[in-house]
TrEMBL record:
The keyword Secreted does not apply. The keyword Transcription does not apply. PANTHER family: 5-OXOPROLINASE SUBUNIT A, UNCHARACTERIZED PROTEIN YBGL-RELATED. Gene3D superfamilies: Glycoside hydrolase/deacetylase (3.20.20.370). Keywords: Hydrolase. One of its GO terms (molecular function) is 5-oxoprolinase (ATP-hydrolyzing) activity. It comes from Thalassobacterium maritimum. Its EC number is 3.5.2.9. It is an enzyme of class 3 (hydrolase). Signal peptide: none annotated. This is LamB/YcsF family protein. InterPro entries: Glyco_hydro/deAcase_b/a-brl, LamB/YcsF/PxpA-like.
């Protein structure tokens, strides 16, 4: 792991001041499309600020209900329509500001659905394949969807999560469960172990080995800005460079 990108979920319900503070510290911003949280105006403002800090922008589409984390999943047709509407709106905002969308990262339930629902995964792969110019995707490191997307010839950045607890199968502990979001101290300790061993501790099981292209901190996690700064220091100590140049 010679290089890694720091990314953050933004453009949701955080203040614009917090958005800007986080953008000043990261390499790639997963910006909400104004449906699961935030608004179209917040999306545009977040893109504009990302350009100020020369941060790569990614569209972060999600389900409109339950903050994007509900149990009810869309049908394949509904999922395709959701992607068309939300990505289309995001790309229009980006183009109006003189930039382009570098990647897509699904939000919440959709991110996990493509790991477990082959029909939805197939819809998403087809959508990505039809994008011109080509567009990358972020996907769960060592997950099923990352393998499927790679096999389909797509550009995939495997993602690990600095502030979320893991299950022994490599999936994330559901947010509804206690301890799903790590405390600052827990995140720091686990990051140190990962950088030294390549392994993430898991809940109730053996550690898992994870290799990642990008590391995520959620913008709404407690102490997100402080955690990102701690990650930067740990990467520097371990001589790991930060880079988003592979998008170009």
């Amino acid at each position: 792991m010679a290089q890694i990108m720091l990314n953050c979920d933004l453009g949701e319900n955080e203040s614009l001041e917090q958005t800007e503070q986080l953008l000043a510290q990261i390499d790639a911003a997963n910006i909400g499309c104004g449906y699961h949280a935030g608004s179209p105006d917040k999306t545009r403002a977040s893109i504009e600020r990302a350009l100020k800090y020369e941060v790569q922008i990614g569209a972060h589409p999600g389900l409109a209900l339950d903050g994007g984390r509900g149990q009810a999943l869309p049908t394949p047709t509904e999922f395709r329509d959701l992607l068309e509407v939300q990505i289309g709106s995001f790309q229009s905002s980006a183009q109006a500001l003189g930039t382009r969308t570098s990647y897509i990262k699904l939000h919440g339930s959709l991110y996990h659905a493509v790991e477990t629902q082959p029909t939805l995964a197939a819809v998403y792969i087809e959508f990505l394949q039809q994008q011109t110019p080509a567009i990358a995707t972020f996907a769960l490191a060592a997950g099923k969807f990352a393998r499927m997307a790679n096999q389909a010839g797509l550009r995939v950045f495997q993602e690990a999560f600095a502030d979320r607890a893991y299950m022994p199968d490599g999936s994330l502990v559901p947010r509804v469960e206690q301890g799903a979001v790590l405390s600052h101290a827990e995140a720091q300790s686990r990051l140190k172990k990962w950088l030294q061993t390549g392994q993430f501790p898991t809940r109730g099981g053996q550690p898992i080995t994870l290799s990642a292209d990008t590391l995520c901190v959620h913008g709404d996690s407690p102490g997100a800005l402080e955690l990102i700064r701690d990650i930067q220091a740990a990467l520097k100590t371990n001589k790991i460079e930060r880079s988003a140049s592979r998008f170009s």
